[in-house]
Amino acid sequence: METAENGSGDVPTHGHTYAGGIGASRIFVLSKDGRPLMPCHPARARELLGKGRAVVARQAPFTIRLKDRTLAESEVDGVQLRIDPGSKGTGLALTDEKKEADEQGATVTVRRGLISIELQHRGDQIRMCMQQRAGYRRRRRSANCRYRAPRSDNRTRPGGWLPPSLRHRVDTTVSLARRMCRYAPVTEIHMERVAFDTHAMSAGTPLTGAERQQGTLAGTEIRSYLLTKWNRACAYCDATGVPLNIDHLRPRSRGGSDRVSNLVLACVPCNQAKGSTPVEIFLTHRPDRLAKILRQVRTPLHDAAAMNATRWRLTKALETLGRPVHAWSGGRTKWNRTAMGLGKTHTLDALSVGRLDHESGDAIVRLPVQVLIVKATGRGSYARITPDRFGFPRLRRARAKQHFGYVTGDLVRANMPTGKWAGTWTGRISVRARGQHSLATAQGRINVSHWNLRLVQRGDGYGYATRRELVPSPSRKPVERRVNSS
Fold it and tell me: Residue 223: phi, psi to the nearest 5?
């Protein structure tokens, strides 16, 4: 254990300086009464479990609980929670900061990364399901039944309303931050709060003065703009003198927007032939035409709009955790990450959030070698009927979600006595009413009877995995200091 401790860059060896580097990810530790203590090294956790001084409190994230020590009997310095919000994923990092004397005798601050977590959102899946449900309802209103006028669009929304796909990003981030505060002694929260200038991103250049009032469609309309841009001809076959439709390059059914750079003119035959097919597949046999059309396509603004809509709501939600919340700009995060020589990932961005005085010698000296990936999977569906791709009922779901003591998403350990899959397997299950559950393993799915299962951890709506940090260790390079000319 001592070799593992000293060889991982986690503790000073015999000198007064801390070399740092890439070290093992820490383990959450709870006191005898369930209060959070300072995270420990995995070797220390194995020693405590081997001696019977601790028990496993949770498998993912792995957490142990001491049996012989309370919070009052422990020394807790506290850690910081740093968050880098994103549209599709959010990075979280638990860090601690120590004061250290450098080679010149000056006091500097060194930041150590203890635990790195990458939260993967499912906002796109929620958006797709909402659109699918709307399509089913729209079809039921018009197919094989009398016409019914749609409801009047006069319903108001409460203040601060967010679409479900955006509210999910805020809720899951706050939920995971609350869990970190429950498992670790978090004293303060640092988050990156950025505002994207979507107008400048759309123009591709910085805007000043009256340029902000002159968009792409200034002084014209969409159809007039497209007719002029495409010379009143079909973008796919150059047909002229025929009725032209407005077509989406990336179909709405595949996440395309109504942004003018995503629109082209198409004749009726080409529009019907393309349908919901992506333009890259539709024009595979005509690469020159495809390249001409794709030159007008610009970077989508979905992610930037999602971040602008949720940044203040996330800040207010984090303040309810009872810890001081500090918001920092994205420019400072990038500056810290670049100065430390780190790569571009959500977890490394989270590690770089906050103030670091590089000119005075402050540095990030350690980052965890392993990243815990937490993927939002949900807790199932409220629907009682599974539809087919046309929206018609295909099968009826069971009213009860729990069968023989297990629910879909539970982490279990299966002991298969005989057969092709004989042995012990651990994974998440999908339950069936007949008791023959489906277990997901690294080698594939197997059918397991509930008699051969043992519950390890209840499903909580998240899936867990790990990956290694793909960047080299940060180095304690000397930072050039400013010298006053006076």
Answer: -65, -40
| pLDDT given for residue 37 in this prediction | 95
DSSP states of 269-281? HHHHHHTTS-HHH
DSSP string, 36-57: EEEEE-HHHHHHHHHTTSEEEE
> 164-183 vs 123-142: helix axis angle to the nearest 10?
150
How far is residue 427's CA from residue 412's CA, in Å, rounded to a whole number? 6
Are the C-beta atoms of 418 and 433 separated by less than 8 Å?
no
Tokens representing 436 are 């023959």
Return the axis-axis angle of helices 164-183 and 302-319, rounded to nearest 10°: 40
Rounded Cα distance, 462 and 59, in Å? 13
Neighbours of 328 (CB within 10 A): 19
Query: Pairing between strand 54-58 and 393-396?
Result: unpaired
CA terminus-to-terminus distance, the chain: 53
The whole-angstrom separation of Cα 355 and Cα 251 is: 43
Give the tens place of pLDDT for each residue, 20-41. 578 899 999 999 999 999 999 9
Q: Which amino acid is at 302?
A: H
Q: Are 193 and 179 in contact (CB under 8 A)?
A: no
What is the DSSP code (8-state) at residue 63? E
Per-residue pLDDT tens for 419-432? Answer: 888 999 999 999 99
Q: Strands of 63-66's sheet, edge to edge?
A: 36-40, 27-30, 63-66, 54-58
Q: What is the pTM of this model?
A: 0.82
Residue 206 in contact with residue 200, Cβ under 8 Å? yes
Phi, psi of 450 (to 5 degrees): -65, -20
Backbone torsions φ then ψ of 39, nearest 5 degrees: -60, 150
Check residues 122 and 255 and name the one with the higher pLDDT.
122
